[in-house]
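quick one: 3-methyl-2-oxobutanoic acid bound model?
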Amino acid sequence: MLTSYDYAFASIVDQAGIDSILVGDSVGNTVLGYTSTIPVTIEEMIHHTKAVTRGAKKALVVIDMPFMSYHESIEQAKRNAGRMIKESGADAVKLEGGTRMKEVIKALVDIEIPVMGHIGLTPQSVNRMGGYKVQGKGKEAESLILDAKAVEEAGAFSVVLECVPRKLAKEITEMLTIPTIGIGAGPDCDGQVLVIHDLLGLFGGFRPKFVKKYLDMREEMDSAIKNYIEEVRSGVFPDDSHSFH
Ligand code: KIV
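yep, here:
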């Protein structure tokens, strides 16, 4: 699984053969320039996901429910999840939280909306967690195991494990019957997800330990753009071959 936030990226990722595309609320950091996922709105999620579903012909598309779109009540969660699926064309929603979201997940599954869970480091809880830290270390492991069980019992079809010690992610993966999708959770999960901007090297600054940069796209873009500026200024571009006759 990889994230995408627009038509161009989604069609490339889809044609490359990915199983599933997540329109993550990481769109807030990667595309919209927010410093966290907290400000992302339902409208922004729908806008980006509509573009992704136009580009993705085969992959399963999952849309993230943003902060405060499912926290008030089960009725609110059903209304917003239904709207997001209807308007965006996504196949499933993802929402953050384990035990405390059990009833919400169950209610969405009951109205035929497939749900992917997300436990461990849940970025919408960054203010409570006090930063982006590995979760489930030491005594916290037991509560993460309970979260995983709750998500499965509620009827989710899979669960993201984010920033969880490798051994614990393995234990959870072996315990559950639904697939675990890891990000910073080691190699023993059933699947993996990464933010595409991280994989392609589109960000300059801090890179988390779990990210593998497969390309330095920022560097490549910088050099292509500087090349263009130079060629326009010097009159090399456009030449005769890029002109109409
Ligand atoms: O928003 C997102 O991109 C995510 C992934 C990091 C799993 O939730």
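The first helix runs from residue 7 to 15.
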